[in-house]
Design brief:
15 helices; two-stranded antiparallel sheet; Serine Threonine Protein Phosphatase 5, Tetratricopeptide repeat; alpha+beta; about 450 residues; about 40% helix
Length: about 450
């Protein structure tokens, strides 16, 4: 790109910054997540370099570069207001953060602001391919809107033709419930228990989860006395491993892991940035122009974006086999796609229709190659049978429905006097006939599903 062209992009991009600089900074209730330390909640405003949180305890000022994300508690009245507060908390030269905001504007169909935001991104990174694509989209849509306003319509495209040109829709994001379950399914069951912040939710009037699981272990033909001791005196993360080994995710609704487990911490910090560097920047899988699959839009540090990205990569099948091969991690197509295309790489990424695909890894001696391979080896084997409520997009392979298992014979329960058990813990309801006799059924036992 010539110096004159680059200057033109920068001037156009800075136009948005100057325009926003003329608007007042709004104070709004939000939760601020620093990169180090605990989240802070309060009335949030922003300067050019800082985010300011004010609450009953006083005022805290954080540099924007030290903030991971801001989640707004109170809803914005308009898209303009929401856009303004999202823009103000970003670091001025964070091209990827501002591009994620441009994707958000596209979802909101605010093509006037999208045009300005894309120019801003291109002012920071004149070669940003996806920003150029979004800018072209914004300009086309603005022309359409002008034509409609002038009474000049366009003939609608046939449905089949529209499907060919519109590309893949963005995948829905995982719910908080599904994210919690993924953490449990991928928690390591072998070796020492991984230290995590875990809380066991006690339901009022019911026995502690540890006591319930101890009773289940005690009813087995070969009770595990070591596991029983851990459930009595162990650390919370040690109890978690025992509970998952014994009952799987049967009691998932009573277990809360706070933060990321190591496998997802590494994925968010080390693996996903490499994937997005190769996939979204090349225009392959980050926009509607994507073919085969599409990654979700938004900051990759957000849980719903990161965990949805993981699920997509985990379910993908390529012509070279699964993108993630848990049985033979070194054969995972993901590794081949990140490496250069040469005679030693028979799993290289296929050529892209437009532009040039730059390999993310320089070769097998690249330190990041070991990072990805070690992460692949850290995933649970065999593959857990995820039971999620997620609505899989049409273009993503759906898991096969679980086979029906014969019902287990009911066993005596472990309720103690004055304590109750929740229905999901196996307490059966009396039948109508037994209600008449006044003799309820014995509570049933049974093991849970193992990840």
């Amino acid at each position: 790109m010539s110096r004159a062209s680059r200057t033109a992009w920068i001037v156009a991009g800075l136009g948005l910054g100057l325009w926003l600089g003329a608007l007042p900074t709004l104070a709004d209730l939000a939760k601020v997540y620093p990169k180090k330390g605990s989240p802070l909640r309060g009335e949030v405003t922003a300067t050019a370099t800082e985010i300011i949180i004010r609450n009953a305890a006083g005022e805290v000022r954080l540099k924007k570069a030290d903030v991971e994300r801001v989640e707004w508690v109170s809803a914005a009245q308009t898209v303009d207001e929401d856009f303004l507060r999202r823009f103000n908390v970003l670091v001025a030269d964070d091209a990827e953060g501002h591009y994620a905001l441009a994707e958000w504007l596209r979802v909101k169909n605010r093509f006037d602001l999208l045009k300005k935001q894309c120019n801003y991104v291109l002012g920071l990174d004149p070669d940003h391919r996806n920003a150029k694509l979004l800018l072209e989209l914004a300009q086309r849509e603005l022309v359409k809107q002008a034509n409609v306003a002038a009474g000049v319509g366009e003939p609608e495209k046939p449905q089949e033709e529209a499907a060919k040109t519109d590309g893949l829709p963005a995948p829905p994001l995982l719910s908080e419930r599904d994210i919690k379950r993924l953490k449990l399914y991928e928690y390591p069951l072998d070796g020492p228990a991984e230290k995590v912040h875990v809380r066991f939710v006690k339901k009022k009037g019911y026995a502690d989860l540890e006591r319930v699981v101890r009773a289940e272990i005690g009813r087995s033909d070969d009770p595990d006395h070591h596991a029983d001791r851990i459930l009595q005196r162990g650390q919370p993360h040690e109890k978690l491993q025992v509970i998952l080994r014994a009952t799987g995710v049967k009691y998932a609704d009573q277990i809360e892991i706070r933060g990321d487990t190591e496998v997802f911490k590494t994925f968010k910090r080390r693996v996903l940035p490499l994937v997005t560097k190769g996939c979204t920047k090349s225009g392959c899988h980050g926009t509607r122009a994507a073919q085969l699959f599409r990654l979700p839009s938004g900051p990759r540090t957000k849980d719903d974006v990161a965990y949805t990205s993981f699920l997509i990569l985990d379910r993908l099948e390529t012509r070279h086999g699964p993108l993630i091969d848990r049985d033979l991690p070194g054969n995972s197509a993901l590794l081949g796609f990140l490496l250069p295309a040469d005679e030693d790489n028979d799993q290289a990424h296929p050529p892209v229709e437009k532009g040039r695909l730059v390999p993310v890894l320089k070769g097998m001696r690249d330190p990041n190659f070991r990072v990805v391979l070690d992460w692949l080896n850290s995933l649970n084997v065999p593959h857990p049978e995820y039971e999620l409520e997620y609505k899989y997009p049409d273009w993503l392979k759906k898991p096969a429905p679980p086979e029906e298992q014969p019902a287990e014979e009911a066993k005596p329960g472990d309720e103690e006097q004055g304590e109750k058990k929740p229905p999901e813990q196996g307490a059966g309801e009396p039948s109508e006939k037994e209600k008449e006799k006044g003799k309820p059924e014995e509570p049933g036992g049974g093991g849970g599903e193992k990840p």
